[in-house]
Amino acid sequence: AQTVTQSQPEMSVQEAETVTLSCTYDTSESDYYLFWYKQPPSRQMILVIRQEAYKQQNATENRFSVNFQKAAKSFSLKISDSQLGDAAMYFCAYRKGGGDWDFGNEKLTFGTGTRLTIIP
Amino acid sequence: EAQVTQNPRYLITVTGKKLTVTCSQNMNHEYMSWYRQDPGLGLRQIYYSMNVEVTDKGDVPEGYKVSRKEKRNFPLILESPSPNQTSLYFCASSLSTGANTQYFGPGTRLTVL
User: Fold this and answer.
1) Is A106 left (phi over 0), alpha (psi -120 to 50) or beta?
2) N vs C: which end of chain A shows fewer Cβ within 10 Å?
């Protein structure tokens, strides 16, 4: 079974600084996808960034980027120029690849989350 | 507006009183799932559906039922709720698997006394 581990329950960063959230995962699959979701106090789950395992290039979305180390099974999220609106719980998630009707391909397996605080 | 809606958003009930949490999506998505979120555990999948009349268990299905009679709706049924089902529940949908985005509903906070 796949597992996702976020070892930092809480982190804080000064506004405008850079912070990196860690995530490791365990899988025997070669085809999979990784995601970072943000959950602000409103509780809404918001997709921040995704990475396809077959792509060597790290994904970026504006101030958000990932460091994907496939061999090490590591998928960290870097937030640059942190803003007050970035304060939230961040979840790393894994999804198996394969065909649409393969069992378990629709499921996201989540880590336990990292609560990020932005210090003004 | 493309969205996933859930109702109710908040519910307090008592042990044993049957309840249904509704979920509806307007994006014509094939896949729908229910997750529960508990402190220190992240989100865990309860049930999922690949299409109308096709449902299967996720990681924590005990005490829950689902149905998928229409493509847009995927209700979660608790026939005899217990206090350990107190949680935050999310419905999600996606067009397909793989890299396709799962869109989440706003969440339902359930308290079972």
Assistant:
1) alpha
2) C
Assess contact for A109 and A6: CB atoms under 8 A: no
| Closest Cβ opposite residue A112 in set B33, B40, B96 | B40
Segment B9-60, tens digit of pLDDT: 999 999 999 999 999 999 999 899 999 999 999 999 999 998 898 899 999 9
Could you give the angle at the alpha carbon of B90 between the alpha carbons of A83 and B42, nearest 5°?
Answer: 65
Q: Which residues of B touch A103 (CB under 8 A)?
A: 56
Cβ distance of B98 and A43 shorter than 8 Å:
no
Contacts of B92 in chain A (CB under 8 A): 45, 108
Average pLDDT for A81-103: 85
User: Is the link from the previous residue into B8 a cis peptide, with omega within 30 of 0?
Assistant: yes
CA dist., res. B113 & res. B84, Å (int): 10
Q: Is the pLDDT of residue A102 over 70?
A: no
Residue A42: count of CB within 10 angstroms of its CB = 10
Taking only the tens place, the pLDDT of each residue in B46-102 is 999 988 988 999 999 999 999 999 999 999 999 999 999 999 999 999 887 666 788
Bridge partners of B12, per DSSP, are B111
